[in-house]
Amino acid sequence: MNKVLLLTLAATLTACSPSQPSETVDFLVANPKRIKEIQRLCKEDRAKVGDELCRRAAEAANRRFFGDRPEKKSK
Questions:
Q1: Mean per-residue pLDDT of the chain
Q2: Cβ atoms 27, 64 nearer than 8 A
Q3: Helices 32-49 and 51-66 meet at what angle, rounded to 10?
Q4: Residues 45, 51, 57, 60: what is their CA dihedral angle, to the nearest 10 degrees?
Q5: Would you say residue 59 has pLDDT above 70?
Q6: Which residues neighbour 38 within 8 Å (Cβ) at sequence distance 6 or greater?
Q7: What's the sign of the alpha-carbon dihedral 63, 31, 53, 46?
Q8: Cβ burial, residue 59 (10 Å; 0-12/13-18/19+)
Q9: Residues 11-31, mean pLDDT to the nearest whole number
Q10: Which of 4, 60, 9, 13 is nearest to 33 (CA)?
């Protein structure tokens, strides 16, 4: 019984931890609503959200805006 309680507690605590590292730039590019949400959170409390996630959201927004256009070659 004690082991089950500890396992349940560990699973609960793991579920409560932020899953920000899984939100890569590519993931965010595919999810524009999440980009907007992260940008809003970054404006409200950047320290809580974290610089890394705010940077990823900014990079994803740039990629969505500019797209993956090939660079023009100059002659």
A1: 80
A2: no
A3: 150
A4: 160
A5: yes
A6: 23, 28, 49, 53, 54, 56, 57
A7: positive
A8: middle
A9: 72
A10: 60
